[in-house]
Amino acid sequence: MVQKIKKTVMKSDSTAKRRGRPRAYQPELALGKALDLFRKQGFAATSLDELSAATGMNRPSLYGAFGDKRELYIKSYARYRADARAAMQEIFRDELPIRKRLERIFAVALDIYLSGETGPRGCFTVMTAASEAVADPEIRALVLEGFSELDKAFASCFRLAKEQRELPASADPVVLAQLASATIHTIAIRARARVPRKQLEAIVKGAIDVMVGA
Predict the structure, then answer these.
(1) Gap between the terminal Cα atoms of the chain
(2) What residue segments make up the domains of the chain, in order of their start?
């Protein structure tokens, strides 16, 4: 009788171990790991073996959870876009004077681009997705959507500033928004190239002076 109970307990323990899934198999965690790898190396340079090692998932599990490498890349980019949107949304909503608002937006952007365990991470859109957009219509649509979102967010800031007479009547919020977005992109590229933060902040200050008046 004792022996039977022991066997039952052992079987139960074994079943529990089989049913339990390691933390790395949680989809959001695994997707975050894939995002970090794609952001660092780009699409072509990232192998399935590297993705498997980073996520802790074997190839069949990766395919089952995310599809093929391209699908995983697109899902990683969508996750990056969602995270970036969440990080910037509140700052864009703050109705500060235009100069202060721009300073805060660019400061947060630099915090994001300069972060990373092995060095500055830059921007997923500019550093890797823009390259893939050349040949992949779906990725191109996502990149263009991201550009449009950023332009519209900046245009809203400049439009409000114009209404409040912080900008001259001749100011064009759409053109100013494109300049602000271009500044975001250039500091992302330079951050990835390890340009020091002080130099990036000088670029930002100069761009703000041009956009809102020195």
Answers:
(1) 88
(2) 2-212
Q: Which two tokens stand for residue 7?
A: 């066997």
Report field, pTM of the whole predicted structure over 0.70: yes
Q: What whole-number distance in Å separates Cα of residue 113 and Cα of residue 77? A: 15
At a CB cut-off of 8 Å and minimum separation 6, what does 108 contact?
A: 87, 88, 91
Q: What CATH homologous superfamily does 2-212 map to? A: Tetracycline Repressor, domain 2 (1.10.357.10)
Residue 112 binned pLDDT confidence (cut-offs 50, 70, 90)? confident
Between 214 and 26, whose confidence is greater? 26
CA 182, 184, 185 angle in degrees (round to 5)?
65
